[in-house]
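Please, structure for the following, as tokens.
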Amino acid sequence: MATQITNYQCPACTGPLHFVGESGRLECDYCGSSFNIAEIEALYAKKEAKAAEAARKQEETEAAQKSAEAEEQQTAADGSDWDASGLSEDWGADAAGMKAYCCPSCGAELLCDATTAATSCPYCGNPSVLPGQFAGILKPDFVLPFKLSKEDAIKALKKHYLKKPLLPSTFSKANHLEEIKGVYVPFWMYDGEASGSAQFHATQVHTYTSGDYEITETRHYDVRRAGSIAFEKIPVDASSKMPDDYMDSIEPYDYAELRPFSTAYLPGFLADKYDVSVEDSRERADKRCAGSLVSALERTVSGYTSCDETSRDIHLKRGKVHYALLPVWILNTRWEGKDFLFAMNGQTGKLVGNLPVSTKRVIGLFAAIAAPLIAISVTALLLLAR
């Protein structure tokens, strides 16, 4: 478990403080405030005590979690739950070359090799000032190495900004791109089998002309499909810091390039420690596995204009659970008091993220569209008034 750390923030604006050697003071990059070290240390004495208490509670929580997982593995042996018995905390000789960090702002626990320094949190941007202890952490079974570089990520982000007429011009400046970090995001991968059936409502629409009339004829069908499917490595992200919709959106990954885990793939990157357990991921795993079967069944329904699922009866045979690290380039930037998170698949380059909208440009676009319509309406009214 990584030791909880205290992150010094500006008392004026809550922005991160950095030590400046020339002045010997802590300064804020956001509002420009400056403080002497003794002043900040006194101010944050209580915060450090709270961080220590949080670390103690976290240790108790992890101990309780391990006990619960032991009970879950007994259930899995009966075939009624996912089998997590193969997961291990034994890193062997690799443990000596690993470090851990903890962000007190968002709670992220980060892993890296001894040559990589975690100078700031990739999720919230706040600096991590002290390393933690590398212990009690599950060793991943697999890792998918980064294929795309930071330069590739920068190009993808700049391309993402293009043709966005409502994007504020100040948002796309180069300083936002400096926050990009490569992170191995934790995933649980599920093996098993799904069998069952699904009902679909399908339609066939036919349009034809009869005399002066155009007739649309719609026929309705109840379609049933049944079958089974074996699946391997259905992914469910195990980090609460990464939005599930982001991780789903940057899929798929090419698992042909999946490798047995080795610390040799970590230098220069951070690895996020899972904080969503196998049990807590069960509902999402079951949903994705059942959805895989229904999607396969729906693909066999052809020759119809539309097809919508109406019901399903799916049975899962849960199998092994694997722990894997998948590559993601992350950009977290703060603009006008709001955080914007972007994520890019480090293998394929698929990128997702929310962009701010310029109110002035929205008004300008609305005015540009509305002006001709108003002019046409006024002209029509004048003609009618004659």
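Residues 1-6, 68-78 have pLDDT under 50 and may be disordered. The chain is about 25% helix and 30% strand.
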